[in-house]
Amino acid sequence: MVNLDQNQWNLVYNIFSFGLVSMLACTVYTLVSQARVLPKYRNALVMSSMVTFIAGYHYWRIFDSFKEASEGTNVNLSGDPGSFNEAYRYVDWLLTVPLLLVEVVAVLALAKEVARSLIVRLVPASAAMIALGYPGEISSEQGTQVLYGVLSTIPFIYILYVLFVELTKSLDRQPAGVGASVKNLRLLLLATWGVYPIAYMFNIWGDAGSSSFVAIQVGYTVADVLAKCVFGLTILKIARMKSHAEGMAADH
After folding, report:
1. Domain residues for 19?
2. Taking the model in full, what pTM does it have?
3. pLDDT digits (tens, 9 = 90+) for 49-78
4. Number of separate domains in the chain
5. Would you list the DSSP string of 72-121?
């Protein structure tokens, strides 16, 4: 049981609510924006919609789990039935992170061989990253947390490196004006994904009390909104710019 004060409980409650509505709003927006890009870029928007829809569903489950685990402002973290279930996040990430990677590949419109090679390398790495992070997340032993944190960081760095390199390579092939957005996408990728290990570290260096619990939940939720909603909207922007550069009427 972690004992939150009223302000801490309200903050966690509101941040989960914010995460849920952000995911749902982005799902609707990217779905209705399909007609505003050329067909070749619509797969990227479909992937974006799937990412935020899946995340929205899991935020609904996280939101309910938090309410059910609360006794007043105290939250049950025992792992027993009725306690707060952190596994919903990892199930979400296991599904959405590979889709995020496919989303990036789709909007770049790379040659089929290059795209296939990227997906074959990145999707297994993303699954390994999530699977290795979960044992450390749920452990209360600092040694276990550090071990799995380090292990999950290896595929994490590999994914960021491969994407950064491929995004850089694609700059010369982008239409005029799109290159700046792709450069921003690289920075956004590093900035948003960089929040996750910071939040994870509160498991290791925190005091296993209320402050650490709040910091972890707020950190992960902010990272999710940035990595899924803001990133998805940036993908939409790039898809629209490339569509207009390739002859689509600007009023679409």
Report:
1. 2-245
2. 0.88
3. 999 999 999 999 999 999 999 999 899 987
4. 1
5. TTEE--SSSTTS--THHHHHHHHHHHHHHHHHHHHHHT--HHHHHHHHHH
